[in-house]
Amino acid sequence: MHADGAPAPSGIRLVGSPALAGFVHSRLKGVEAGFDAVAIGHKVSHFPYHDKKRVTQVAELTAKLGLFVDYIHTPIDIFLDLSTPNDYAREGTILIYKFAIDAIHQLRGRAVTSHLCNVQTMSPEEIEARLPYAHESIRELMDYAGERGIRFCLENLPHPYSYQRLLERVLETAPEPICLCLDSCHVNIHNPDPFAFIEKYAAQIGTTHLSDNFGGRDVHLMPFTGTFDFARLARLLARVGYAGNVMLENSLEAAVKRFARKQNVPREPEPTVLDEYLRQSRQAAERIRDALVAASSGERPTAAAG
Q1: Considering only CA atoms, which of 208, 207, 206, 186 is closest in space to residue 197?
Q2: Which of 9, 167, 169, 233 could be disulfide-bonded to 36 (CB atoms 3.0-4.6 Å)?
Q3: What's the CA gap between 112 and 70, in Å, rounded?
């Protein structure tokens, strides 16, 4: 819920095709499904946000459609690392992330979400050695984003791996709070207590990647079709006065593949066409939003409780 008492808009991360026509089509479908906000994914081939002409076109499009762009996700690759001792790699990563900050500023959005690093396996000693570099990089990007009215958010990563341990150590040793993008799938992977992390850092959550799983893999199910407790999440976000949007990250492409292989889960609706998938996604987002609003007002959630 926003500070003025209005319900938080709901949105979905829609990844457009490399052609602008594909980008326009996917956004039009999002509007028709009733979404108020969209986000832009990490594949630069889908949206080259380093290209100012393309950013201008997208800014004009989203303004015309009345869509709010919640965030841009920076690229994901092993060489993109805010914590590496390699000065060239670290400086290159910062520069690439600044492209995203400039683009979301032009789009009049609110956040950039990034991975701190993408190294799955590190020793405890290497994690500690990386902390000073991580803090220096984060400080530079937070300042750069803040000057433009943008939030720089770090995304929590799959629980079992070293890059999540590094993020946790960065958060524990940070001189000031760092904005987070909460990924509900990531926090639920092989994690006996996913809400321990969420409760500890709920006040720092600036945006969300909400999808579902059964605790095993990052499968991007539609919310309420796996085991993640979205009603509990809504209560936690309400308690800390969450003022962001309800942003989904479930995947139509992954759902189509599961049904084709007969590996779909029992509660998962079969994807038929994009319009229907987006409509069902919108309903899931509304359940989360309504639970958040009800918890904020002190009312007991009804259908939104899940």
Answers
A1: 186
A2: 9
A3: 8
Range in 14-18, 107-111, 112-116 with the lowest mean pLDDT: 14-18
Amino acid at 171: L
| pLDDT exceeds cutoff 90 at 268 | no
CA distance 152 to 146: 8
Say how far apart CA 188 and CA 204 lie, in whole Å: 18
CA dist., res. 201 & res. 76, Å (int): 23
250: its two tokens: 């479930």
- Give CA–CA dist 108/68, Å, rounded: 8
Does residue 76 surpass a pLDDT of 90? yes
Give 98 or 2, the one with higher predicted confidence: 98
**Domains of the chain, with CATH numbers?**
10-305 (3.20.20.150)
CA distance 179 to 277: 31
Q: What are the tokens at 234?
A: 């809504």
Instruction: Look up tokens 């209560």; give the residue.
Output: 235
* Tokens 């995947």 -> residue: 251
DSSP annotation of 248: E
